[in-house]
Structures are given as C-alpha cells and as structure tokens.
Write a structure and sequence with these properties.
Elements lengths: L7 H11 L1 E4 L2 E5 L10 E3 L2 H13 L9 E10 L2 E2 H14 L5 E6 L4 E6 L10 E7 L2 H13 L12 E8 L8 H5 E2 L4 E7 L7 H15 L10 H10 L3 H10 L26 E7 L2 H14 L3 H16 L5 E8 L16 E8 L6 H17 L5 H8 L15 E7 L6 E3 L2 E6 L18 E8 L4 E9 L5 H19 L6 H6 L10 H10 L7 H4 L4 H11 L4 E5 L2 E4 H17 L8 E5 L4 H12 L3 E5 L5 H11 L3 E4 L10 E2 L2 E2 L1 E4 H10 L9 H4 L3 H13 L25
Parallel strand pairs: 8-9, 13-15, 15-18, 22-23, 22-24, 24-27
Antiparallel strand pairs: 1-2, 3-7, 4-11, 4-17, 5-10, 6-7, 9-11, 12-19, 13-14, 16-17, 18-19, 20-21, 25-26
Helix pairs in contact: 3-6, 10-11, 10-13, 17-18, 17-19, 17-23, 18-19, 18-21
Amino acid sequence: MLFKQSTIVEHVQLLKNALLTTVNDTLLVQQQKWKTFNITQGPTSYAQERIYFHDQIRYEPTSVPIYNIPILFKITNGSVSIEKLRHSLLLVIEKHSPLRTALKYDQNEECLMQTIKPMTFGHDLYKFQISKIRSREELENILFDEETNETYFDLANGIVFRCHIIRMMSEIDDDDDLAASSARMNDYILFNFHHVAFDGYSTELFQDELHLAYSNDTLDFERSLQYIDYAQHEKQLDMTKAEEFWKHLLDGFEIDKHLELPYDRRPSTTQRSGYGSSVNFEFDRELVENILAYADEVHVSVFQLALTCYYIFLLNLSNGENDLCFGNIHANRYRPELHSIIGMFVNLLPYRMKLDPTWSFEHTLLQVQNLCLQVLENSHLPYQKIVQLNHHQSKIVNHLPFMPTVFRFDSINTSNEQIQLDDATIYPLSLYHTNHHTDQQNVSKFDLLFSVEYHHINKIMKCSIDYSTDLFDQKTIKTMCDRFCVMLQQLFGSSSLNSATLKQTPICELSILLPYEINLLKQINQTRVEFDNDNCIQCIHHEFIRKAILHPQKVCIALDEQSLTYGEVLYYVQILSLYLIEQCKVESGDIICQLMDRSIEMVIGILAILTSGCSYCPLNVNDPPMRLHSLIDDTKTKYVLTHTRGITQTSLNDNDRLLKFINVEAILLEKQLNSSNSNVNDVGSIFNSGETRATTMCHLLSSIQNLTENSIAYIIFTSGSTGKPKA
C-alpha cells in the first residue's frame, strides 16, 4: 500500500501496521527480529546464488567479468594516511563479513556454500595496490583494467574486495617518506568490490563505516544480524502466497519470448561476451518540473510514473507488442535489520503487463501503480524461484527469462556524497566521466538496461541506457534515447498535452518518430504529381514502356544477385503479354491471378497482365489451398500465372470451367529459343528513336486493348480475419 498514503502520519501508521502479525484475525505482538545463528558456514543467499551461476553459465569462457564494481574517489583536500586507511579497511571487513566470505559449490549438499574467513588472515583478506601515474590516459587504463580484469577477485578464497591508491605524479615529485606513506590532494583512491558481496545500497553504508573507522580508529561491533544469518532466515520464509502471485502474474507468458527491439545483430545464442557500453542523457529542468508536478497531481510516485513511460515506450518501440514483461532491479531489504548490512540483497523481478493501446495515459498509469503495489508485497520471492514456477525443464537456465530488457530506478536523497577522513576530503567520481571523449562503460550485465536516476534535493533527473555491444551499436542506442525524449516532450514538455487531455488520449497516439522522420513522411505523402502529355494521366504500363525506351540501360529490377535493365524487362513483358493475348485469348477487363514468391518473374507478370489489358490479382503462396481455391472462384479467372518455385501446376474443375496455370519461366524461355515471332520487337531495335519512338510504342501497345486511365489495374482481397475475404 506504499505511495497510497499522502501524509507522514499515514506512512508512520502504515509501517507500524506492517510490523504486526495476525492469527485468525487476532492482532498479536510486534514481529520479532531475526536472531543470529553464530555460524561461519552455510548456504549462500538466493541473490549470491543467482549472480554466481549467471556469471558462469550466461557468459562465454573468454568474456570479460561483469560483476566488478569499482568506485573511484578523488582526494580534493588534505592527505590520507595509507597505514591508517588500511587499518580502517580491516575494521570494516571485520564488521561486515561478506567482504571476507568464500563461496564454493558443495557437491555433496548440491548447493553453493559460503564460509566466513577469520580475521587472523589480516591484510591478506583483501588486495591492496599502489600505482603512480602522470597522465589522464594512464588513469583511464587503470579504470578499464579494474572493471574488466577477471584475476582481481577469487571467490573460492574469499577475495572479493580490493583497494587501489593511484598517485598522480608531477615532475617535481620526489620519493620522500611522507609521499610514500600518504595519498595527497589530486590523488585517487579506488575501491573495487565483487557484486557477490556488495550492491548499490551498500555503497553509502561502506562510506559511512569507512568514515567512522578512520576518524575513531574503531567501529561499533555490537553483536547484530550478519549477512550469513539473513541467508539462512531467507531459506526458511514461507513464500507460498508470493509464489501464487507470481504464478498468476506470469501465467500464459512465454518464458523465452523475445521482444522485437531494434537489434543491429539479432541474438543467435543466449551466451554473451560481456562487453558493453552506455549512452547517458539528462532532462532539462522544465521537463523535470512538469514531471514532478504531474506525479504530485495524480498522487503517484516518480518511480511509477517513469515505469509507465517505459511501458508505453516499449509498446511503440516493439511495433505494438502489448504483452510486455521486463526486469526491475529491487533492493530487497524488506526488514529493518537488513538496512545496516553490507552485502548482496538485490532481487530481479519480472514486471509483466498486458497493455491496451486504446487506454489513456492516466488509465495506464493507474494500472501500473496497481501492479507496483502488488509486486511490492511479493518482492521477496527470489528470481530463480519465479523462473522455476514457469520453467519446469531444469533448475538452472543459461539466460535471463522474462528479461529482454531491464528497468532500474534510483532515488537519491543526499547531495553530498563526499567522505571526510580526518582533515582529508575524498569525493566520488563517475567512473565513466573521467574520459573527456566519451561517457561509455566497458561491460554490460544485461542486453539492455534502462536506468533513471532522480536526485530529490537538486531536482535533477538523469537517464542512461547500458547495452550489450554483441547486439547493439551506439548509433542505435542514441536514436532510442532521442525517441524516448520525443515521447516525454509530448507528455510533459512546454507544449505538451494538459492533464485533462492525458486522461483521454490513447497511448497508441503517442509518437516516437523523430523530426526528420516526420518530415520524410510528409514528403512521401505529398502524392500530387504533374503528368506529361498535356497533364493527361497515363496507364501504368504506358509510363513503364516510355521510361524503358528513354533509359533502356538503367537497372529496372534488382533481387539478391540478379538484375535486369529496363530494356530487358520490356522485352520479357512483350513476350508474356502477347502470349496472353494470342494464345490464351484474354480480353480487356479479364482478371488474371498471379501465384508467385517475391521474384523477378513476379514483376514481369504484373506488367504483362496490365499490358494485355487485364486486371492483376495477387495470391499468397503461403495461404492454404482452401483459401486459394476460394479466392480463385471469386475472381472467376481462367488463368493463374506461376513459376517453377510456385505451387505444382494443377487443374481445378469448377462448374466445367478449366483453370490453367501458366509457368512464366517456361514461356519466357521458350520464346527466347524461338525468336521468330514477328510481333515481338527486337530488344536492340526499340531503343534508338528517343521520345518520338517512345510515343509511337505507347500507341502501338495501347491499341492492342482499349484501355483508359479508369480501367481497373488490380484487385486485392482482405485478410479474411473477420470472416470471408472481401475484394
């Protein structure tokens, strides 16, 4: 029921009620805190298990590591004692056991086990490194190495954390004792964690603990719940209600369904190399203010509003796919005791919704809000458990079902993330903004990750799209960003729809077309044409013949490795049209069907039918015989043009009327071998008389049949989805 409460008092009451339990509708005591088990070994958490196996199965043996989490700080003031920093890190590691926990698969227990290493290992519990650099390029090389080096962590031996001091040297620097024992202003400190022991929520906890340990030379070691305790309690939870919810939500959804995204390279396998990149963009202040004002007006959270926009964006991006399901990264710290523990808690949740394109934006928003509230109540069910509910073939799959794309929303409530270490101040830097040429990262955990970051204090909203370079090019992702911004401008820009209009406007009317695409459509739809010959409208085949005589050597038809010039096509059209007139005795107004695959013969057949004075009716070779027979009967045609790759020539007797299939390839080949037919002009002799010859040729062929611009050129049948096909 979170976000339905509009006041602080209501939220307090909501939280109090959440901590109460009932049995037989009787209110009992407040929910007891989880106890500690005082153990150093046990099964891992579901979150650790998920990323451990995902890393080993999803990615190729030569892939880059995707779960390194480097965090870079710059010393902006004072100096940091290296010895004191190392002691402080040991204190943090001692208090937060995931930073010294080994993971191994136990064959006997058939599960992944965690073992907490004792503090007697001292500084061997983590890796520490000092480097000296003189240029920005060297710094970028180190950052790339920290993100992509697979040798830095050893899960089996509990090495999941490292610290790297990066000294920025100058020409006047020396190696005195002070310089060797401290990191100074403009130097960098990089902390690198493996995701199995650390998540995004842990970042602020680590910074706070490091500040306390460095400033006080100690930490509060009051015995409290440890991460390994959480892992054991999690396995004992009754998840029956959550399982029922997720089973119902995902009922009927194809677990391996691929969303039609604008891939540059379609995924042919579920494995990835791990290489990735990202494109970042920031909303202008006016747009952010309008978004926040609308969220406040309709009483929804910014997360729910952003999620709704992403649903609608995918609906348009995937050409109207309305049964949408994508992942959402959930912090999963659903109990107060879990808020102070460094570790990996994140759960991946599939958000499935069937959208109706006729829904208004506001109605869609309310549906998404309702989905969010239901998911929140059942968010503790681990992702792999959700998958098993709909995937019975195996316990472990080698990809992420339900996850063609993942959505992440980060709400940041603090404006000052710097850490004070005595007189020194270290300030966090974006790992990808150190490069002044690009803001790209080097790895990607997902095929496509759409992130929204909202800063409450500064009222800033940033977005980024992280993508796998196995599937996408940067140009495609930039275009995707532009499309999303175009849609948001329609909703919340200065000239956007007002609130009343949003309540009524169907979401299918929201466009993601870019300005140049809109202009192109306008140009295409400007169909007014000034005709030659005193502005008289000419028949299609007349215009083709005239162009063929004027430009006989230009390419007319190209298909794969084949091509024909205008002169060659005209020659074959003459052969086939005269065959229809002289051998088949077709008359003006007759309907001739054509049953062909996409081919050069198909184009020749269409032009020949029109030249012979008949109407063209296309048939689909993939349609079932019953439908084809029905359409042929409706047209009352006597002839069907086909080719060798079409259906086998057959005869259909309909009320003593014989239907004849004409093999276009055979006719053309026969006439080429027997070129004595005097009615067919030699190809070379047609094209030497310019415009005058073109006009003469038009009159010659038009005199074969009495045709006008009002004659029917073609007949098209409807799909028949609502009943019998109609012409």
